[in-house]
Amino acid sequence: MTGSTFIDGILGAIATLFNAGSSAGSSLISSPSAAISNPSD
User: How far apart are alpha carbons 13 and 22 in whole angstroms?
Assistant: First the structure.
């Protein structure tokens, strides 16, 4: 049971990071893309 709880905790942490990362990551990704598409800025 300890093993399942440990795995569930890791999967939960990954899911949380993924959910947070999808919103934060989209802003992080869009900034460099904007810089790449407008190199003069």
Answer: 14
